[in-house]
Every structure is written in structure tokens, then in C-alpha cells.
Amino acid sequence: MLKRRLGIGVFWFLLVSLLTGEQSLGQQAFITVLDQKSREPVVFAHVCYEGLESGKQKYSTTTPEGKVVNDVRDRSKLAISFVGYKTFFDTIMPGQSMEVLLQPTVLNMDEVVVTAQYTPERADKSIYKVEVINSRQIELKAATNMEDLLKDQVSMNVRQDGVLGTSLTIQGLSGENVKFLMDGISC
Questions:
Q1: Domain count, the chain
Q2: What count of other Cβ atoms lies within 10 Å of the Cβ of residue 151?
């Protein structure tokens, strides 16, 4: 009777151990990648594992939930990158879950001046003459329309036609070769 009880006890112990071991093998470790400011998932971030002992590299991308499975076999270097974020570096162990907050980077552009010159130049150093008629000059001329404003400008010819309206020629160029901007908006 004692042997039978001992046998049943060993059987249950082995069954529970087996089920518990299988359950622990079934659990996956995830790396969750989030935006540091908004805490939203970073979708399709690039994840690179490099084994410290083996040197083998493995690449993966995050899911729409910002997750990637950590299935490394040995201690590995981890690098996570995505456009617009600083690259994250760390060491990760097999079976280790981790939450990574990627820090956004801000890229500011300098002012851009577009000229028809071969090399970049500041606007005041441009070989092309740019004339600006500001609000003070408009007030002094008491101009009510473009014709009144431009008729006194050198190398500009303003013509009034009863059928076609007003036309403007600048140094012999007219039509689609001339562009006027008023407060940055094409007229």
C-alpha cells in the first residue's frame, strides 16, 4: 500500500513538473519598443541581436504593437533603430523581457535660399538683382493697383489694353517668364 501511494505521488509530481516545465517553455520573452514621449508603439523598428560569444547576428522588426520576440540563445548585444529616433544599445539575456523607450531626435534645417547660381550663396550676395517693394513704398506712391505701383520702375513696361487687360514686360520678358509674389503668394 505504501509503495502504491509512493508511486501515485511520484506520478503526480512528475506530471506537474512536466506540465510546469512545458508551460515555462511556452512563454515567450518580448522586447516592447515605445516612443519615449507619447508611449505609443514604434512600428517596424529595426532590431539587431549579436551574440557576445558566438558573434552571430540576427535581425528582426517590431510588430504593429511595437513588439519583437526575444529568442536569443546566449547573452547578446541589442541595437534598436528607427528613422527619427536615437539608436538604443543594450545587452540582453535569453528569455529576458524588456521595454525600450526610443528617444525622438529633432532635425532642424537651416534657411534655404534658391538662386540660379552654380554654388550656394546668401541672398544679399546673389549675382541676380532682387527688388522688394515694401508697404512703406506702396503708401508713398499712393498706388491702388499694380499698374500704378510698377509704372515708375526701371526696365518695366506696363500696358493697358481694353480687351486683354493690363500686361507687363520686364526687360523684354513677359507672360510665363514673369512671376509676382504678394506676401509670398503668386499674383
A1: 2
A2: 13
For cell 503668394, the residue is 185
Which DSSP letter does residue 115 get? -
Question: Which residues constitute the domain of residue 40?
Answer: 28-102
> What's this model's pTM, rounded to 2 decimal places?
0.47
What whole-number distance in Å separates Cα of residue 25 and Cα of residue 3? 32
- Model confidence pLDDT, tens digit, residues 30-39: 999 999 999 9
Structure confidence by residue, pLDDT tens digits, 116-170: 566 666 666 666 666 667 777 777 877 777 777 777 877 788 887 778 777 778 8
Last residue of a domain, one of 56, 72, 102: 102
Final residue in a domain of this structure, among 102, 137, 164: 102
Is 137 in the same domain as 94? no
**Confidence class of residue 24 from pLDDT cuts 50, 70 and 90?**
very low
State the number of CA atoms in the 13 A half-sphere of 103 facing the CB. Answer: 5
> Where do the DSSP E strands lie in 18-164?
29-35, 46-51, 57-61, 67-70, 76-81, 88-92, 98-102, 156-161
